[in-house]
Amino acid sequence: MSTVLSVNVNKIAVLRNSRGGTAPDVVRAATACLDAGAHGITVHPRPDARHIRADDVLALAALCHARGVEFNLEGNPFAPPREGYPGFHALCAQARPAQATLVPDGDAQLTSDHGFDFAADADRLRPHVAALKTLGCRVSLFADAGAGTDVAAAAAVGADRIELYTGPFAEAYAAGDATGALAACAETARRAAAAGLGVNAGHDLSQSNLGAFVANVPNVLEVSIGHALVDEALYAGLDATVRAYLAILAA
């Protein structure tokens, strides 16, 4: 089994929005990533449109559909619609992503930093998961690694996959000892597979830590990488950086 790479282009939109206008172009950046061999594109539009906007979602969906690659749309299914943001389900209905990744982030969060509490959120999640699956979306739920995460409950609400939140692993790796964090990720991945769930992973994965992660965590089908990849691409270029990630996954 090979792990596929979905490139998150949120940070391209952050740079564009900081100045206004259309540069850098999100679709052009996504195209460069796909030309380099990326297997798909990920975006996580927030209700406040701080980076990816609804119009970007539709443009990127059209690109991915035309190229025959997967489009992964992330978002909080509980966030209400507002001006400029029709709501996560409405965006999915328009964009028809291959995968909808549900994330429990609030408006004030700078970035996603925790997974769902499946025991507490199951009743609210179940109808959202069912509605998304009627659109033909594969549904993945953001999940913390560790014994406290009830992956069986994630399966029970109808999800197809979980996405392991890898922020704690990346932090531990940077500090010089990721043994415990890797063990937690591996154990959760095994329990997810036993429950019939596929496993994705994302958050703060980089060229420095990705190899250790995929070598030690079984059954990882997809990694979604954005912040570190764009950072590295500032120096090496998007094409070379995407190819470097693909080489790590191939190895």
Protein model, in words:
By secondary structure, this protein is an alpha/beta fold. The chain has one domain (4-250): Alpha-Beta Barrel (TIM Barrel). The protein is built from 11 helices and 8 strands. The radius of gyration is 17 Å and the shape is globular. The chain starts with a strand and ends with a helix.
Q: Can you tag this structure with a few keywords?
A:
48% helix; 251 residues; eight-stranded parallel β-barrel; alpha/beta; 8 strands; TIM Barrel; globular
In short:
The protein is an alpha/beta fold and 251 residues long.
Mean pLDDT: 94
CATH class: Alpha Beta
Q: What is the CA-CA span between the terminal residues?
A: 12 Å
Shape: globular
How much helical structure, as a percent, in the residues? 40-55%
Look at the helices and sheets and give the structural class. alpha/beta
Low-confidence runs: none
Classify the beta-strand content into a percent band: 15-25%
* Strand segment tally: 8
SSE sequence, one letter per element: EHHEHEHEHEHEHHEHEHH
Could you give the topology of this structure?
Layout: E1 4-8, H1 10-19, H2 26-35, E2 40-43, H3 54-67, E3 70-75, H4 88-95, E4 99-102, H5 118-134, E5 138-143, H6 151-156, E6 161-165, H7 167-175, H8 179-194, E7 198-202, H9 210-216, E8 220-225, H10 227-236, H11 238-250
Parallel strand pairs: 1-2, 1-8, 2-3, 3-4, 4-5, 5-6, 6-7, 7-8
Helix pairs in contact: 2-3, 7-8, 10-11
